[in-house]
Amino acid sequence: MTTTPPAAHRALPPTDRPGTLADPDTPFAVVDVHRARRNIERLARRADRLGVALRPHVKTAKSLDVAVLLHDGTPGPVTVSTLAEAEAFADGGYTDITYAVGIAPHKLPRVIALLRRGVTLRVLLDSSEQAACVAEAARAAGIAVPAQIEIDCDGHRGGLRPDAPGLVGIGRVLHEAGCLDGVLTHAGESYFAHGGQEQRLAARNERDAAVAAADRLRAAGLPVHVVSVGSTPTAHAAEDLTGVTELRAGNYVFFDLVMAGLGVCAVDDLALSVVVTVIGHRPEYGWIITDGGWMAMSRDRGTSAQRQDQGYGLVTDLTGRLLPGLVMTAASQEHGTLIARDGARLPELPVGTRLRVLPNHACATAAQHQGYHVVDSARGTGPAPTIEAVWPRVNGW
């Protein structure tokens, strides 16, 4: 597992800069640290106004260096999507972690090992079978395994409805083993909520579902310490989080074209891009061919259901300036196809020209790369921005 040691908690690593975006072999991922910081500060201010703790989801960046930006350089509460992420962040000094994927019984020994290291690692479940396994493992190990009950607020994926008959019984099984920690929900359908009004309604429904479930458990005499909600769209739309203790989001650090299409952010907020090189032309089809296919961008076509389909991504020059009408419309494993749309003229881009592609889904695109080359758009470093640092991602995808 590749990690950055705890001593690397810093604002911007290393001082020996490795050249510019014109130097590394393509394709490679780039993070604009100026935009990332701006995105992070935006949601932190909102959480403060709403009076809730912020528990960022690190599954998007999977980087200790990016995580340093989240809590002013000090390890704080995070959410993870794999135990490999939990272990890597524990190695990096993080001790307050929520594993926000339903627990499988065979994973409990790894959970308990982290608990024995002094890491508060919460697990998630939505069935009596999982609750019984967690309670049994906790008793056998002689250590409480903090567990949250997943609440289904919109029919998106897993979880129990707030009025589910089995909710209180699951809570009681966990409580009797000293394991009941709280409830957690995720408004997955908010990723199809267009505009502020729809997103505000999704955020209200998300809050109401979690609070209703917590109230039912408390009415049955069961303690509920944590009421956790969040998705990137609802986190930015919530107006009242009364009854909620913490807010989760992850995509917001980088943002992407799906979030821009929903109106959660602007294209200028996107902090992640992929540098590719022009390797050919098919003028008879109006194509420019690059060396960045779906292995560089992922297969995600999340904007295809939106009002404006962005293909596999919008195209900029190396400085991050959008090239009007140029979009990546097709991808094979190692080839990307760019076309001009909406009446735009196909630009003259000779073989060897480097470009940046803005992704549909930052989480999926980041997962295609082992690390990030870091630039700072606030510095204005010329036609080939200076690489300020190289940040590795942790293993765990």
- Tell me the fraction of residues in β-strands, as a range: 15-25%
Number of discrete helical segments:
11
Spatial order of strands in the largest sheet: 2-9-8-7-6-5-4-3
Order of helices and strands: EHEHEHEHEHEHEHEHEHEEHEEEEHEE
Mind telling me the C-alpha Rg?
Answer: 22 Å
Q: How many beta-strand segments? A: 17
**Overall shape:** elongated
Which structural class do you get from the secondary structure elements?
alpha/beta
Helicity level: 25-40%
Spans of at least 5 consecutive residues with low confidence = 1-15
Main sheet attributes: strand count, strand direction, barrel closure: 8 strands, parallel
**How far apart, in Å, are the first and last alpha carbons?**
11 Å
The averaged pLDDT comes out at: 94
Please describe what this structure looks like:
The chain is α/β, with parallel strands linked by helices. 27% of the residues lie in helices and 23% in strands. It is built from eleven helices and 17 strands. The strands form two sheets. It has an eight-stranded parallel sheet with strand order 2-9-8-7-6-5-4-3. It has a six-stranded antiparallel beta barrel with strand order 10-11-14-13-12-15. Strand 10 and strand 11 form a beta hairpin. Helix 5 runs parallel beside helix 6. It is elongated.
Task: Describe this protein with a few key phrases.
six-stranded antiparallel beta barrel, 27% helix, 397 residues, alpha/beta, disordered N terminus, elongated, eight-stranded parallel β-sheet
